[in-house]
Specification:
By secondary structure, the chain is mainly alpha-helical. It has helices spanning about 10-30, 45-65, 75-95, 105-115, 115-135, 140-155, 165-185, 215-260.
Length: about 280
């Protein structure tokens, strides 16, 4: 069942969304493109400014959608409900051993309500859950952006795949984004760790300022593989898989039913009502 997206992406809003994503990608990659001296404070000094920069971007996206008629009051209400649901789900796992219960709902909602809705939902969900779990810190803007991309990507998946094939596609997507999320969240702080090493690997795996890009990427690949991929990221992938297989069909049906009742994108029309003439005897 194909449903209309809750947030329709017009040319202007798609451009803003693309620019926001490009700027966000540079937030992760800029240490690899310049010389950065490692320090223990990591992103502490600049993270508040990054956080303040992300929020206006989100506001611009919402305003662009509103100005193009892409987000109405019904979509805003749905956004609030799903953000609250995701905020309540996250403490159930709290990231222990990679158990993250927030992402499967984000994938399913992005699938049903579209890429624009998924992008905003990813940001609001992580922000709300951070307030609920006291998880506000320099990592939060990066988590918000990664989650926004997860929701947006789910909305960009092929729309005509249905049934068991759709569940299989969402499972594969959930596994992929579980590892991508871990990869990016390691990248945001890795350049600022000094003398990173693990007992079961010979040699340092820290960022080297001024080293060739491929050399630093190799070091980072070893770092994330040994410290995250086999543990936290795999746990997140398993959680997404189980949740989508077990709960996916029912949640998709519920969200699509809500989407049909809300009639997103439907423009109301008013016609003159003809009052029949009353004849007197």
């Amino acid at each position: 069942m194909i449903t209309a997206p809750a947030v329709r992406l017009g040319p202007r809003s798609a451009l803003v969304l693309g620019l926001a994503s490009l700027a966000g990608l540079m937030m992760f990659l800029w240490p690899l493109l310049t010389k950065v001296e490692p320090q223990s404070m990591q992103h502490g000094p600049d993270a508040p400014f990054i956080f303040m920069a992300i929020l206006p971007i989100l506001i611009v996206i919402v305003l662009a959608e509103l100005s193009e008629g892409g987000m109405d009051s019904k979509a805003l209400a749905m956004l609030g409900v799903l953000s609250a649901v995701n905020a309540a789900l996250r403490p159930l796992g709290a990231g222990t051993a990679g158990i993250e219960t927030v992402f499967f709902m984000l994938v399913l909602a992005g699938r049903v309500f579209g890429a624009g809705f998924g992008f905003v939902l990813g940001c609001t969900s992580l922000f709300a859950s951070a307030l609920l779990t006291a998880g506000v810190g320099p990592w939060l803007p990066f988590q918000m952006l990664c989650s926004a991309w997860i929701g947006m990507g789910a909305g960009l998946l092929p729309r005509r795949i249905t049934g068991k094939a759709e569940i299989a596609m969402l499972v594969v997507y959930g596994v992929v984004v579980a590892y991508v999320f871990g990869f990016l969240m390691n990248l945001w702080f890795w350049p600022f760790i000094t003398d990173a090493e693990v007992p079961y690997h010979d040699g340092h795996i820290s960022y080297v300022p001024g080293a060739p890009l491929l050399e630093n990427l190799h070091r980072f690949g070893v770092f994330t593989l040994l410290t995250s991929t086999a543990g936290w990221d795999t746990g997140r992938a398993i959680t997404n898989t189980v949740a989508i297989v077990v709960l996916g069909p029912a949640v998709l049906a519920t969200l699509r039913r809500a989407s049909r009742k809300a009639s997103f994108g439907t423009i109301p029309s008013f016609t003159d009502t003809v009052v029949p003439e009353i004849r007197r005897p």
